Amino acid sequence: MSDHYLLSSVTRIAPLAHGFTVRPLPRERWQRGDYVVGEVTATPGLRQVELPCGRMAEVMAGDLVIGAWGRRMATLEAVGDWQAIGADGGFHLLTSGGLMGRLVSRSPYVRAPVSLVYRGHVHVDGRSLRMDDCLGPAPPAGFAIPVVLIVGTSMSAGKTTAGRIVIRQLKQAGLTVVGAKLTGAARYRDALSFQDAGADRIFDFVDMGLPSTVCPADLFKDRLQALLARIAWCRADVLVAEAGASPLEPYNGLTAMELLGPQVRCTILCASDPYAVMGVATAFACQPDLIAGGAANTSAAIDLVKRLTGREALNLLDSRSLPRLRQILASCLEMELG
Fold first, then answer.
1. What local confidence, expressed as pLDDT, does residue 1 receive?
2. Contact 6, 59 (CB under 8 A)
3. Domain assignment of residue 237, given as a range
4. DSSP secondary-structure letter at 262?
5. Could you tell me the pTM of the whole model?
6. Are residue 158 and residue 96 in the same domain, yes or no?
7. Region 291-314: what's the mean pLDDT?
């Protein structure tokens, strides 16, 4: 009887449809981005795996899940690293998208992740398969698409919601839009939500061969340049790009901001509260074109943002704010949005 494997969404770039084998590798040969198989040993809290299509599948003890070694350093949820795996081979599903490593720290406000034990590395044509092996050559293209960049003061600050709303406004104006999540930890749902909002094409850092963007800055820069070359071939009118987490965290958000540089026409800062706006603006001498997220949930919060920073804030979930959002986008992009 052949084994049944659940493929997590980090495998969506991998050529696994034509068959693969699984066998263990000695620890000294393990690397970031290796595709590995873990057997579920316990589901004490969370119990879902995100499939390549984005659908969530519930797992139970004994299931075999394919994901990739990586690191997560989330300020509000969990921290883990494949390099922390001990001799017992036990590890955790650090994100539902298949980022795998041993949990080293967890917020008391989130449920415990799925526990697994190492069963082997994925092999294709007799060779162990890494995410790096699944990347095609980058097309020779210069990136010159105007960018709406969405950054935040932390994870869960409202960035993806803001991205969806911006994409919807741009599509209603008849523009061709690419949506991309450039930094973070593997989960396809954010990029897919950009597609749901109307983006003509979507990308994320998994398309760069990264299970998360907690990696050396030079590596991230090389991969992002290659991804931007692919995006350039889409010939879109606008790229709506989300930098996950916050620029101060080790996800290379600042590197992404620097690389996008002159192509950024509009910066939207999503903040958890008005004082967080002040912190990020001070740390980066950042002057966003708009403040959104929790810092703009009420009129009192909006007034406080204005008083503390002098910047404009909008509650993007309030439809009465959308005409002003379109005005800001039109001014920054120098485009007629109707």
1. 41
2. yes
3. 147-333
4. G
5. 0.94
6. no
7. 94
Distance CA 187, CA 52 (A): 10
Is the pLDDT at 18 greater than 90? The verdict is no
**Residue 272 predicted with pLDDT over 60:** yes
The residue to which tokens 């987490």 are assigned: 245
User: Taking residues 92-101, what's their average pLDDT?
Assistant: 99
338 lies in some domain: no
Q: What are phi and psi of 8, to 5 degrees?
A: -80, 170
Report the pLDDT value the prediction gives residue 338, as an integer from 0 to 100.
Answer: 73
Averaged confidence pLDDT in the chain: 94
> Residues 169-173: contacts with CB within 8 Å, 24+ apart?
169/322, 169/325, 169/326, 169/329, 169/337, 170/237, 170/238, 170/240, 170/329, 170/337, 171/197, 171/198, 171/199, 172/338, 173/326, 173/335, 173/336, 173/337, 173/338
Q: Give me the CATH number covering residue 257.
A: 3.40.50.300
State the sign of the Cα–Cα–Cα–Cα dihedral 153, 249, 168, 8.
negative
pLDDT given for residue 3 in this prediction: 83
The whole-number pLDDT of residue 212 equals 98
In 254-306, where do the E strands start and end? 264-270, 290-292
- The pLDDT of residue 253 is above 80: yes
As a whole number of angstroms, the distance between CA 107 and CA 111 comes to 8
Structure tokens given for 131: 């995410």
| Number of separate helices (H) and strands (E) present in the chain | 7, 18
Residue 141 lies in a domain: no
Question: CA angle, 243 as apex, 253 and 301 as ends, to 5°?
Answer: 105
Closest alpha carbon to 209 in 284, 129, 287? 129
